[in-house]
Amino acid sequence: MAFQTITVDIEDHVALIKLNRPDALNALNTELLGELCTALEAADENDKVRCVVLAGSDKAFAAGADIKEMSEKSFVEVFEENLFASTNDRITAIRKPIIAAVSGYALGGGCELAMMCDFIIAADNAKFGQPEINLGVIAGMGGSQRLTRFVGKSKSMDMNLTGRFMDAEEAERAGLVSRVVPAKKLMEEAMAAAQKVAEKSQLSVLAVKESVNRSYELTLNEGMLFERRVFHSMFATEDQKEGMAAFLEKREAQFRDR
Ligand code: CO8
Q1: Which of the two ends of the chain, N or C, has the fewest CB atoms closer than 10 A to its terminal CB?
Q2: Ligand 1 nearest-atom number relative to CA 134
Q3: What is the second-level CATH architecture of the domain 202-248?
Q4: pTM (2 decimals)?
Q5: What pLDDT, on the 0 to 100 scale, is given for residue 229?
Q6: Annotated domain spans of the chain
Q7: How far is CA 241 from CA 229, 230, 254, in A?
Q8: Closest residue CA from atom 11 of ligand 1
Q9: Keywords assigned by UniProt (predicted)?
Q10: Which architecture does CATH list for 6-199?
C-alpha cells in the first residue's frame, strides 16, 4: 500500500508505523488519520504482524489535529461528519497491541492518539499536553476522558484548563507513560518491547489487551469475573500446555498460537 502521510515497515513480526508530515509536526489531518487507520487495520489482518509500534519524528509524535484544516469548519459540518468519531472507533477496534513511541511533542490529538495505544514509551524530550483550550475549544478524542483515567482528576484538570505541557519525567510519575528512555534509544527500546510481545502466544496477547481494556468499562467485580473466565478459557489452548510444560522442563516455550 502506498501512503503519503505515514510510512509502514514490517520487520520480525513488528509493524512500525511512522507519522510523516514533518512540515506540520505530524498534525493529524483527514488524510493522515485515514491512512493510519487503514495501516493499523492491515496490520491487524496480517498474520506476519504480532505487534505494532506507532511513532512520529524526533521533534514531534504529533502536534495535534490539523488546525488549518479545522479552523473554518462550522458546528453543523463537524456535527454532521461526526469529526474524529470513526478514528476513535477504528483505532480502538484494533486487537493487536500498539505501542506508542513518543519523542518531542504529543499535543492535543497527538496526546490523545498516544493514549489510544496500549502503552506509551516516552523519550526524555517528550512533551505531552492538551492545549485545545488555547484555541477556544476542548479536547475531542479523549483528552478529558482517557487522560483523567491515566493521571487523575487534579492533573487532568490542570492540563486541560491551563494547556500547560507535561515533560516525560512528570508523565511517568503520573502514570501516563510506562517508561522513559534517552531520546537516542527510543526506537531501539520500543522495537525491543514490541519484539518481546511478539514472542508470546498471540492468544494470550489478545486476551491481555481485551482484559485490561475491560477494566475501563466494568465494575471491579464484573472485571474480575471477566478476567477469571478468560483465564479459565486459556486452559483450552495448546499454548497453555506448552507454556507450563516448558517452565517445568526448564526450557523456552515454543508457542504456536493454538
Ligand atoms: N495543526 C496544523 N499545523 C501545525 C500544528 C497543528 N496542530 N502544529 C504545528 N503546525 C505547523 C505550524 O503551523 C508550522 O507550519 P508553518 O511552518 O507552515 O507555519 C509548523 O507546523 C511548525 O510549527 P511551529 O513553527 O509552530 O513550531 P514551534 O517549534 O515553534 O512550536 C508547537 C511547536 C509548540 C508544537 C506549536 O507548533 C504548537 O503550539 N502547535 C499547536 C499545538 C496545538 O494547539 N495542538 C492542539 C490542536 S487541536 C486538537 O488537537 C484537537 C483534538 C481533537 C481530536 C483529534 C483527533 C485526532
Answers
A1: N
A2: 44
A3: Orthogonal Bundle (1.10)
A4: 0.97
A5: 98
A6: 6-199, 202-248
A7: 17, 16, 11
A8: 24
A9: Lyase
A10: Alpha-Beta Complex (3.90)
